Amino acid sequence: MKLDANSLLNMKQLQPIAILTAYTCPVARCLEKAGIPAILVGDSVAMTEMGFSSTRQINMEHMVYHIGAVRRGAPNTHIIGDMPFDSDCDIRSATQNARRLLHAGADSIKLEGSKYSIISHLVENNMVVVGHTGLTPQTAEDFHKVGTTEQEAEQVYTEALGIEKAGAFMLVLEHIPATLASQITASVKIPTIGIGAGSDCDGQVLVINDAIGLGDKWPPFSKQYAHISPIIEQVARDFATEVAQGTSTHPKTQHQ
Ligand code: KIV
Q1: Model confidence over 83-98: pLDDT tens digits?
Q2: What is the DSSP secondary-structure string of 180-209?
């Protein structure tokens, strides 16, 4: 059963929320089968699947394409669609672009940083919004932990409260000290979803390619539950060897 924003919000009191990213139909199908309550089609797709060096390099067309694929794979799962860089810089374009992502199959949209008036406007127009503070890769200069100085921590804390006040129903906290995440989690009524933010958040999100070990480098805070890249390499080697030996065709089809 697909969870709406209210059901996810109510999970704050009831149970920890496990969110994974997905960008493709077959992976989304696996996550739905596993009972993951919400899938994030993150702009991390820029690096994980498209070979770009920054999330700033993808656009609305890319996000629409990936959200459509994930929706076809997970018709009964809440999908959060990431607003790509520069798609939400003013109220008018943010509204148009958010509508496009919802039309492509997202149930809610996520945007980074302290865009309070934009969040409020989207919410007033019946759109469901997830906020994101701490490390915000679209505008960060590097990927260091955010909120380690008193001043920065105060800034992240204020931003979290502002995002909640603007009407977001959920808040991603990325790469901040666990103590700060814990303090924010206790101060807001909406669920906090951590990535590199300690274990006291109301839920956790992981980038699927990091979790399955598909790729060659991961952030220090991401756990690998599997190592898929070496398996793909081995399949490719085995296949090439069998082609060379003339033994690659399936036994059942050999003489048809
Ligand atoms: O784009 C993404 O995958 C994200 C997560 C890291 C939260 O925003």
Answers
A1: 999 999 999 999 999 9
A2: HHHHHHHH-SSPEEEESS-S-SSEEEE-HH
